[in-house]
Fold these 3 entries.
Entry 1:
Amino acid sequence: MKASHEYDPELRRVYLEVVDNQLRDNNPPETRVTFDRLRSEGFNETEAKVLIASAIAFETFQVMKSGAPFNHDRFVHNLNRLPDQTFEDK
């Protein structure tokens, strides 16, 4: 069993691919806005994408846990909190 601080590199790759797709498609546009903001705050490209991926992972977990659909407002709220990763389940 992995320790809680370890991560699955394949899962990380998948989440980063989702970030790349969202940036490429500008869907949702808030992902691009967040990426640009994080870059302007001094985060490099990879760091910004990893932060965004953490918000995507949180939203994915909420959807899986509750069975409810993707909550765009919650996702955007949590993007806006980055780099703070104390996400809120609003």
Note: The mean pLDDT is 93.
Entry 2:
Amino acid sequence: MRKLRWGLIGCGDISRKRVAPALRDSTICDFVAVNRARYELAEEFAREYGARKWHKTWQNLIQDPEIDAVYVSTPVYLHAPMTVAAAKAGKHVLCEKPMAMALSECDQMIKTCRNQNVQLGLAFYRHFFPLVKRIKQAIADGEIGKIVYAQFNVFSPFDRKSGEDRFWLMQKDKAGGGPMFDMGCHRIELVMNLFGEIQDVKGFPRNIVYEREVEDSCVAYFEMESGANVLLSITHAAAEFQDSIHIFGNQGSIHIKRLNTGEMLINRKGSEQHESHPPHANLHQPLIEDFTQSALEARAPIITGEIGRKVNEILMRIYGG
């Protein structure tokens, strides 16, 4: 069986929990090499997750002739330069979200990958959730009628001080924005996937609790081309964790208390229907599998660079850009 040979740039939290295990466990992936900013820890990471090599620089990794594709798992400001360089080296690129700091960078990433005839994908892994597919089916089949309103709440208490792990998320020149940029991009992709094109958007980023370069909270209001209204509320400042979705139609409603569990409730004319559609044990595995197949089969991945750019465009409008 032919396998796609992978290199991983960046060995932070998401790589340790999901990306590296997905590359290791896939039957169509060959996990070749890693690179991390702290090179003295690269060998330990590589051995733990079964990679054969550890490169001192990411530039060395993308020039490795044994590598076909790279996963870019670094702070946002590095996404564009790393993706462009990897594509010019002939590597397929699966990039963490959000895509880049600016639309011009998104355009450069897309253009370079197209010119080099390599695939470009974005890590919007929730697109592959069975629950998301079920919600989309329910909406398409009219199970709750015409969609009137939906509300997404994403509350994740988070703060970092200088010198602490992931402090870069507090720095605008590295992260691009606060929780709306970091977590909101996932939900914007979901909004477009479930409800179609966004016609208009208004955003209200602000600092309520913390003094930092990026917002600690943000509300975004979307007017969909379908006529539906969607409200997305995101914060690092609230004490309570939430990742909920509530969708209201003119004949019923859908309620998800916590998206990652796969549990949902459909209300129709006074009746309640409970369903369970749990995600893969490794949330990234279906994303990795689809992108790997796309590269092996020379087809576009399900989550393309163009989708990533659309999400970035909405983010810029939320922030007033």
Note: The mean pLDDT is 97.
Entry 3:
Amino acid sequence: MHVLFLCPHGAAKSVLATALLRDLARRDGIDLTVSNAGTEPDPAINPVALAALARRTLEFSDVPRRVDRGQIAAADIVVSLGCRLEELPATPKRFVDWSDVPDASEDVDGLCEVLSSRLGSLLS
């Protein structure tokens, strides 16, 4: 299975969701591909997200990139963290909207808690 997380800048919410789901899959022995992108990507990962990853000892080396048709086509599930379906370059097979999560800059720990509580639903 391939999960693609999207957020507008591809630099915070989708980064955290990707790292958290990769960690969950690794711990549970689940074969899973997880990636992220943005509709208007920033040049680098948000420092708030990097600090949250470091506190959780999670590694992340991907760079923000613009979502393209190929990424959408390759994903079994596309999870939006603030991107509208009509902004995407293609229609996903399955689209999940988690746009109601907290902003990383306002409550990064709350964001991580909400994401962690929802990630299991993607695996069932």
Note: Helices lie at 13-28, 47-55, 69-74, 104-123.
